[in-house]
Structure formats: structure tokens, C-alpha cells
Write a structure and sequence with these properties.
Blueprint: H1 5-16, H2 22-27, E1 32-35, E2 41-44, H3 50-58, E3 72-76, H4 82-90, E4 95-100, H5 103-116, E5 120-124, E6 126-127, E7 132-138, E8 145-146, E9 156-162, H6 164-171, E10 176-181, H7 187-192, E11 201-209, H8 216-223, E12 228-236, E13 241-248
Parallel strand pairs: 3-4, 3-10, 4-5, 6-9, 10-11
Antiparallel strand pairs: 1-2, 7-8, 7-9, 11-13, 12-13
Length: 251
């Protein structure tokens, strides 16, 4: 990633300082600040997950795409903000809305926004087909929170639920240039219920999760009525994970 020697050490330590080791947990700082080659900075927590997320986005180029005149970006499932930061490098004139339900992730997300002076608004909650509240199922990792879990557990957190039209109204947006979605299976529900807002989205990039029986053919069927052409960027057969890109020429 072109990191400095000091940041390489920090990046490596974040793997070892993880929650599975009680001693390391006591010694570990809240987060390391990793400076990217562009000069942007990312707070990486010592949980063994954040560094992998950063690598997926900036090394694996998970959400890389070509688009012009991107002014409004909605990041659903923002996590600690690595995708938002990636898009901020590509689209420096864009304004961002970041939706994230995990309180711990929200702290890191807000720190990333502050460190890089991004024009971003954080919505502390989950996106849904209806407004109100919902049960967020807590997984074992920092990236495993979902309204549609792989295996329902007893650990849940009551969170605020925002609809996409509510988010747009709060920001005064008439349309969305780029929608990034990684909501751990709930995309199936979101794309199928109260979904008229999709006609106001130009480009979508994100993940579809096989554990809810949602794949590339389902995405195409759900987005086609709104004028989208869907491309599969990659597919992980082991995890049933599809990375896709969808473009709406009518917007």
C-alpha cells in the first residue's frame, strides 16, 4: 500500500492486538492511524478486521468504478468509512451520507471523517424499507452486524431505522449519483420493498449475500424495472458473495 515503515509496523500490529487475546487487549491502544499514499488517514482498531477491510477497499479495489460528475454519495453500511474515503479520493467534489448502525464503528467512522475533513453526514442507525426502529443482530466481528443475520443470535441492539427517502430529504438531495451498499443480506429486502427511490439513483456498487439467497440474477431482476444494467464484478463461491455494479442510464 506504499505505507511508511512506521505505518507498516502499525498495520502489522493491528493483526496481533486483537480481542481474542486478553493480554493484547489490555495493552492495545484504541486505534492506530495509518497514513495512505495519498496522505489521507485511517483509524485502524486492533481487532484483526479493520485492516482487512482497508486492504479490500484500497488494495483489492473492491468498489473501483468509473463515473463522472459524482456529487452525492450514499454509503449504506459505512463501517469505519474506508469505502467513503476511497470514493472521496476518486470524487473530491462529492458530499457523503454514511449510514452505520454499530456504535463502535460510528466512533471510528466519525474519527476518519474528522481526520480527512470529509463533507460527510453520519446517520447513526440502519437503512430500512420503513422508518422507526429495528433489531440489529450482533455478530462476532466488527463487520458482522445485520438486520438479516446468517444465524439469528441472542445478541441484539435496538437501532434507529432510516429509509433512503428520509436520508435524501434530510440532506436536500433530489437524486443520488452513487450508492454503495454492504448491509449483510438486507439488500434483498431493501431492493424489493418501498423501492421507488431507486429511480433516483444513477450508479450502484456493492455486495449481495448468498446466505439470504440473493445473487446476480436476483439483482438484475429487481433493478431492471428502474432501468439499471447490472454487471458482476466478482463472485466468491465459498462465501456466496457477489460484488456488482449497476448503472441507470435514465437518471
Amino acid at each position: 500500500m506504499g505505507l511508511s515503515p512506521i505505518d507498516r509496523v502499525k498495520y502489522a500490529l493491528s493483526w496481533y492486538f486483537n480481542k481474542r487475546n486478553a493480554l493484547f487487549t489490555k495493552l492495545a491502544p484504541t486505534y492506530f492511524i495509518v497514513r495512505l499514499p495519498s496522505g489521507m488517514r485511517v483509524p485502524i482498531r486492533p481487532n484483526g478486521v479493520d485492516r482487512l477491510t482497508l486492504a479490500d477497499v484500497f488494495v483489492g479495489r473492491l468498489y473501483e468504478l468509473q463515473a463522472a460528475d459524482v456529487k452525492r454519495v450514499l454509503d449504506l453500511g459505512a463501517n469505519i468509512g474506508t469505502a467513503t474515503l476511497f470514493f472521496a479520493e476518486s470524487f473530491p467534489d462529492a458530499e457523503f451520507a454514511c449510514v452505520e448502525p454499530s456504535p463502535d464503528n460510528q466512533v471510528a467512522l466519525r474519527e476518519l471523517i474528522r481526520l480527512n475533513r470529509l463533507r460527510a453526514t453520519v446517520f447513526e442507525g440502519a437503512v430500512g424499507t420503513d422508518s422507526g426502529e429495528a433489531d440489529l443482530h450482533l455478530g462476532c466481528g466488527a463487520d458482522m452486524f445485520s438486520l438479516t443475520p446468517v444465524t439469528p443470535s441472542g445478541e441484539r441492539l435496538r437501532v434507529t431505522q432510516f429509509t433512503v427517502p428520509e436520508i435524501m430529504a434530510a440532506l436536500g438531495w433530489n437524486d443520488i449519483d452513487l450508492l454503495k451498499i454492504d448491509i449483510e443480506g438486507y439488500e434483498k429486502t431493501l431492493f424489493r420493498g418501498n423501492n421507488a427511490w431507486l429511480s433516483r439513483v444513477r450508479v450502484i456498487v456493492g455486495e449481495a449475500h448468498g446466505h439470504v439467497g440473493y445473487g446476480i440474477d436476483d439483482i438484475r431482476a429487481d433493478l431492471a424495472p428502474f432501468g439499471f444494467q447490472v454487471t458482476q464484478k466478482s463472485f466468491n463461491a465459498r462465501d456466496g458473495l457477489t460484488i456488482f455494479e449497476a448503472r441507470n442510464a435514465s437518471v
